[in-house]
Amino acid sequence: MVGELRYREFRVPLGPGLHAYPDELIRQRVGHDGHPEYQMRWLVLRRAEDAEGGSSQVDCKAEHILLWMSTDEIYANCHKMLGEDGQVVWPSREAAREAGALDKSVLEEMETDVKSLIQRALRQLEECGGTAPPAPLLHTVHVLSAYASIEPLTGVFEDPRVLDLLLHMLSSPDYQMRWSSGQMIQALACHDAGTRTQILLSLSQQEAIEKHLDFDSRCALLALFAQATLSEHPMSFEGIQLPQIPGRLLFSLVKRYLHATSLLDQLNDSATEPGARNSSAPEELSRKRGRLELDFSMAMGTLISELVQAMRWDWASSRQGPLARSFGSIFQPRPADAGLGLPPAQAQASLRRPARFRPRSEFASGNTYALYVRDTLQPGMRVRMLDDFEEVSAGEEGKFQQSNNGVPPVQVLWESTGYTYWVHWHMLEILGFEEDVAEADEYRGAAGSGVRGGALPSCRWKPMAELYALPYVPPAAEDAEESEHLTQAEWWELLFFIKKLDGPDHQEVLQILQENLDGEVLDDEILAELAVPVELAQDLLLALPERLDDSALRDLLNCRVYRKYVPEALAGQPAYPSLLEAQAQPQEPADAAGVEEKDAAPQPPRSPLRRLVEGYGPAGKIVLDLEQALRAEGTQESEVKSLLLLLRQQPQPFLVLMQSLDTPAANRALHLAVLRVLRRLVDFPDALLLPWHEAMDACVACLRSPDTDREVLQELVLFLHRLASVSRDHAVVLNQLGARDALSKALERQLGKLDQAQELRDMVFKSEKHAHLYRKLTTNILGGCIQMVLGQIEDHRRTHQPINIPFFDVFLRYLCQGSSVDVKEDRCWEKVEVSSNPLWASKLTDRNPKTYWESNGSTGSHHITVHMRQGVLVRQLTLLVAGEDSSYMPARVVVFGGDSTSSVNTELSAVNVMPSARRVVLLENLNRFWPVLQIRIKRCQQGGIDTRIRGLEVLGPKPTFWPVFREQLCRHTRLFYLVRAQAWSQDVAEDRKRLLHLSSRLNGALRHEQNFADHFLPDHEAAQALGKTCWEALVSPLVQNITSPDEDGTSPLGWLLDQYLGCLEAAHNPQSRAAAFSSKVRRLTHLLVHVEPCAGAAPRPNRNRSHDWGSLAAPGLPTSITKNLTGCWAAAVEEQVNSFLTSHWRDEDFVPRFCEHFHSLQRSSSELFGPRAAFLLALQSGCAGALLKLPFLQAAHVSEQFARHIDQRIQGSRMGGARGMEMLAHLQRCLETVLIFSGLDIATTFEHYYQHYMADRLLSRGFNWLEGAVLEQIGSCFPSRLPQQMLRSLSASERLQRQFHLFQLQRLDQELLKLEDIEKKIQEASGKEHERAGEEDAKEAGAVAAADVTEEDEDEDENDDLYYEGAMPEVSVLVLAPRCWPIASVCHTLNPRTCLPPYLRGTVNRYSNFYNKSQSSPALEQGPQRRLQWTWLGRAELQFGDQTLHVSTVQMWLLLYLNDLKAVSVESLRALSGLSADILNQAIGLLTSSRGPLDLHEQKDVPGGVLKVREDSEEPRPRRGSVWLLPPQTYLKAEDKEGRNLEKRRNLLTCLIVQILKAHGDEGLHIGQLVCLVLEAWQKGPCPPRGLVSGLGRGSACSSTDVLSCILHLLGKGTVRRRDDRPQMLSYAVPVAVTEPHTESLNPGASGPNPPLTFHTLQIRSRGVPYASCSDTQSFSTFR
Fold first, then answer.
1. In Å, how far from its chain's centre is CA 1636?
2. Of 1144, 1135, 1158, 1133, nearest to 1231 (Cα)?
3. Which ranges of 522-578 does DSSP label H, i.e. alpha helix?
4. Which of 207, 454, 1151, 1420 has the smallest number of CB atoms closer than 10 Å to its CB?
5. How many CB atoms lie under 10 A from the CB of residue 515?
6. Which of 1159, 1043, 1039 is nearest to 1090 (CA)?
7. CA-to-CA distance for 1525 and 1250, rounded, in angstroms?
């Protein structure tokens, strides 16, 4: 805690609530680069924030991490440890020395006393010999123990004679002597852990110490070791069932561990002085360090080998195939459907996908994938589940049935269950119909190994080049020169097995090496540095299996060098079958024998033992020979010893012999035969070296079984009693296996009639203390090994030197076992059955404590039966109960296990339930699989009959070491890279140019981690855990630091990006410095962004079937790295665009240059970050930020320039040809740039100008397909969508025109029908004529008909309502809505009666009548009545000789008016039309030009002149073709009155919004309510005043879009803020600015600057203002 208090400000976060603090400097060394390195102890503390968020509590159980740090890392992370000269200041120890200091003379006298006492103790020990120690010797030892507790005398006890004395005392048969030696050792070791470890190391390295130590002495040393390592490696393996390791093997592991740690300390201390490498003998130091490295590697290999065997991991490797991982980036998150977490069969099946169905990884979000599945899936198609969902697991396949609008919407018939279940769209992968799946299988088989290990296709962009894709992933092809020889790590692994060989075999292998290496004399130094060819290594590997014992052979077969260089065909198989195969073999010979007996000659019956081991060949014959040797009357000890030696080398038959006790009770003869052999075997001392502990669980299982025969049980008890008496280690093992309870139950079943069972139970009970010690030792050794492995990984990271430790990958593989297995806790069981009320059984597993299962029956008949999944070991079985159930609450519960429902008779536990209990744990950490578990409620509280159970929890499978190792690995990795990231960030902060070297640094670190994962981590989860931790600890802090602005407001990365953008042109020369600079920047940025943010996992769906759109699994937000990088890129772009706008906004070619600049930035974004959407959005955000900084008039000028440029390009594209295509290309580039206006305040003014120019184009040139295409691309840039409404109004006009045509035809048909009726009447009248009367009648009828026709003609002439096809010119009427078309004023109104010729006037009148009738139709009565107002807008085509004149409506009227007159004055035309002089003169000017048909003659008495038709002889002009005389486009200016009115309107709205928000205080307003209040105040007043509003002209109209635009402007300025919890709520933030920046003249030719824009406040007295408070006087800010 002292270090934490001293350096508590240097806190490194390691996780939620977990921090590391530098505590103490341990040692110093010289690194591989020649610079000093310091080992720092970091305290790892858990902190819990208090309620106030200030102080926090520190967990007293603090862990620590030892980390080597360079001087730069110490300076960056804990600079207070450096002195003024920059050197590391070591902690002062003077105070500690003074506290325990003694006078020099007194100390010398005491040292003399200690030496004499040592001599006296040795002399007394020799005198006593083997007899009981005399009392003086014990007194001498007690005095020595008292002296040993004094720290200044520690050096005296380093005398070698002290170790001899302790060794003799520890091996003494007298208990008092051994206890005294233990007291002395504890006194010596009480000073510090280093002294304790040194004593243990010295004692453990004594030759043949194990022969001199008995059980108690060994336990004394083991207890000392446990005490020494308790605080060094406080690692918890809670919940993990550790194997039972006997004390003899534990002591061996302790020796190996101490030896490895001592060599590691020597390595760290081999170069403690910085100048050691520059001393006079550097070669000697190098050789010494090389020898130490080799010795340490061999010691670590031996330790790992023994630890693997002691933990029985080699058994797991024989049952599980070797783990393999396809190579790929460990930093890229794997997609959810890539097979992660699935069993191997399902992971392989995930590759089975027809090519025409797209996987989920190809979609940007879960929503789009869900829509794709919904549109593609058809009934009958096969699908696969991608995620776990309630009762359906990932990887299960089924057939799609139907879908509906419910939640979840998809019904699938699942093959695994045989019934249907509803899931969500995004959880399914389409496999297709049966034939599609068959084709996919054929394709997968044809692809073979081509797809094995390949990545699934993804729609995410991945660069083609390896440099930008994964620069740190090593290429597949290795260097040919390196592949010819073994690497040093591979050779040292092979050398480990060579050193394992005995004398003759060892010399033989050395001879082979010497012959193949030019006869060079080989010693240890030369062996370590040999370059061994691959061919020679293969020969050695093939020769080694014949010379190694069983344990070494298992190591050889599992090591990397053997698997890599020995082909499977040459490797062969072990000489004996595996244990798993052996357990299935005993039944096979018995069945086969029954068949062969019919045909073969009668043979003597075989013994059960022979049938058990006959499948083992020579190894099984050893057991049979051993049985015969033990059964013989005169047992030959030499023969038994030789057979025991063979069994020690090949222990599999012996283990099968003991495991046979765990077979069914029907094998009684076999059990008795085996037990008799084992009982006789225990009497031989050499038999105790066999691995009894590895199969002791079979003995305990036989004890527990209620079906075990009494004779077998008695023999078993006698055997175990004998074994425990001979070796107390096995009594400890039995205690750890729970033999005490098994013996007690066996005694109960046999009514106490088991000989020596009580004595055996007492022996097991007395071993409880030692069992606890063994468990603690196992934990400490395993934790210490893990810490050493993590230390080697850290050294590997720091020095980038290869790891040459044998079996390093094997140890990591075993630690990572279980990382790819993810069995859910609620998937441990297959089904749950109850004794009654089965309809309520689901309440047990619904995880709702408010629901329950209630039984119905008699007392003691209630039970719950759980059918477990195959192979799942129960970690915990828990019942949930409730005290409020009163008499329904269980009181006694008993759990039974069985192989089937008919054999559930093995009692596993019995629990009494307290009335206050909530959770009742029934079972924990079972070491055997029970297919059926039955929970029986024997009794209820208060004598109740029925019971209530609130829930049932079954946890499994048995946990592995992976979670513990993952936590430690990630913690060490995170601390290492956080420290390094801080050092690199400090380096960049001191000099920004060093940021260019960050790419190579990062690439080196990532490449190292990638190579380490490819070589040592076995599967994807382990590799991904390391990659994610490294990326978060190294890259995330670096990105955060290099993107944070410094004192001048610029971040280092922002400065780098500015430099990159500034040298784009110079970088085109590949030989220039700018090209090299740009290359470094690109490599850095691509490396930082190459890891795509992982989509967030969909939350587990709720059982509530309410409608939830969240079930479509939208992807998660980008990581902080992406946010920081995009923000930095946006700032750099904003700076570039802002500089460009400041310099060039008034240029004539501003728009083309801006588009070129924007596309240059786009190209740079693609070069730096690839075409990633986040950075393209950041680019637009940066451009938008620069545009927002423009004053209003400058922004209006920019928007007008873009609208003008688009108008010019659209009109220019009409010319066609190459020039037209060029115009289209320019238009496309401009449109891509204009998209940045979307969502900005500038979009309102851009829409205003674009609408004006678009209206002129449509009315003068007509509709073009390009108009719709342009609007489709930039439609988001028009807030009011007025251009889109203009096109829709044109479409409506075309529909009206077609209806008008049909209407005219209908009227014509009606008139013709009337004429036909009249003719028929005439004919009928003429056919009935008589002599006179008929003639008179005919005359009268003719007169009537003529009168009707005459009246009809008169009516038609009056109304001009007849329509004759082809009689009139083609006239099209455009009905324009004033709300979306910019129709200017009343001066453009056209009077058809006075200004149009009769044949046109008739058409106009007919259309007016048609429109009025269409407006009066019943379908339109609900809306307001519309009326037509004819304008001069439009165009016409006139035939003038051979020419076709394209003119406006005004020009058409002029030309048609001259058809009847030879000359006409301009003044009369102006008076007749009512047009303004400007409009009329513009039309006349084009008609009187060189291409026009008119001439203007000036006359003195006629103002304006006279117009005449030009004669042919006057001026030559083209006589054929089309002549365009339309008035040219008139462009607006932002500095005109209309632009300033728009600015005034924006300012008025801004002031109005601010005033309303001020009136509502901090509570604010909803944005919709605010818009309504602003519109109401704008329309009704009194704020703003009506005079100000009416003076704005066209700007007096205000819509909700204008208000929203002003709100966006205020949000960007910071005047208005959103609420974090409710973004739709707006409130006033800061006082509104009273002045805007001084704007220069928008017209470069103007005489001076524009008047300054100022604000002033008017006091307006009003009553009943709807949005203000109740004050009498209101203030209103307006613009003047």
1. 47
2. 1158
3. 524-528, 534-543, 550-558, 560-565, 568-571
4. 207
5. 10
6. 1039
7. 24
Q: Are 879 and 920 in contact (CB under 8 A)?
A: yes
Neighbour count for residue 616 (Cβ, 10 Å): 22
Q: Which residue has the higher pLDDT, 715 or 872?
A: 715
Q: 1424 burial class (0-12, 13-18, 19+ CB within 10 angstroms)?
A: exposed
What are 68's strand-pairing partners?
A: 39
Amino acid, single-letter form, for residue 585: Q
Q: Which carries the bigger pLDDT value, residue 673 or residue 1394?
A: 673
Q: Where are the alpha helices (DSSP H) in 1145-1191?
A: 1150-1169, 1173-1188
- pLDDT of residue 52 exceeding 60, the answer is no
Handedness of CA 1028, 1029, 1031, 1036 (dihedral sign): positive
**pLDDT at position 428 over 70:** yes
Among 268-277, 551-560, 648-657, which is the least confidently predicted range?
Answer: 268-277
Instruction: Encode pLDDT of 336-390 as tens digits.
Output: 444 433 343 343 333 333 346 778 776 766 667 887 888 788 888 889 888 878 7
Amino acid identity, position 1025: A
Alpha carbon distances (Å) from 344 to 59, 323, 722: 42, 10, 47
Residues 6+ apart with CB under 8 A from 1180: 1235, 1236
Residues forming a β-bridge with 904: none
Tell me the C-alpha distance between 17 and 1267, whole Å. 60
Amino acid identity, residue 844? L
- pLDDT tens, residue by residue, 897-923: 988 888 888 888 999 999 888 889 998
Residue in 975, 1087, 977, 965 with CA at minimum distance from that of residue 1016 = 965
Q: What is the C-alpha to C-alpha distance for residues 326 and 317, in angstroms, rounded to an integer?
A: 20
- Residue 185 near residue 224 (C-beta atoms within 8 A): yes
| Cβ atoms within 10 Å, residue 1618 | 15
Phi, psi of 392 (to 5 degrees): -115, 130
Buried b (16+ CB within 10 A) or exposed e, 25-34: beebbbeeee
**Whole-angstrom distance, CA of residue 1354 vs CA of residue 1345:** 14
* Structure-token match 């690692």, residue found: 235
Helix, strand or coil, per DSSP, at residue 1507: strand
**Which two three-digit tokens encode residue 316?**
């797991």
pLDDT at 459: 37
Joined tokens for residue 483: 């592949």
β-bridge partners, 438: none
Q: What would the 3-class secondary structure string for 516-527 be?
A: HCCCCCCCHHHH
Residue 252 one-letter amino acid = S
Provide the residue type at 385 as one letter: M
CB 1194 within 8 A of CB 1639: yes
Q: How far apart are the C-alpha atoms of 1464 and 1453, rounded to whole Å?
A: 12
Structure tokens at 1155: 């588009």
Question: With contact defined as beta carbons under 8 Å apart, do 210 and 251 qualify?
Answer: yes
Three-state DSSP class for residue 1291: helix
- Find out whether 1487 and 1454 touch, Cβ atoms under 8 Å: yes
The pTM for the full model equals 0.71
The pair phi, psi for residue 1498, each rounded to 5°, is: -80, 130
Return d(Cα 1375, Cα 1395) in angstroms, integer: 19
Overall size of the chain counted in residues: 1680
- The rounded distance, in Å, linking the Cα atoms of 1147 and 1128 is 29
The tokens of 1213 are what? 């594209």
DSSP readout, 339-372? -TTS-HHHHHHTT---TTS--GGGSSSHHHHHHH
- In 1328-1386, alpha helices (H): 1333-1359
At 1427 the three-state DSSP class reads: coil
Contact yes or no for 902/859 (Cβ under 8 A): no
Question: What pLDDT does residue 863 have?
Answer: 92
Over range 1125-1131, report the average pLDDT.
Answer: 91
Return the amino acid letter for 245. Answer: I
Q: How far apart are CA 896 and CA 504, in angstroms?
A: 58
- Identify the CA nearest to 703 among candidates 693, 690, 715: 715
- DSSP one-letter code for 1031: I
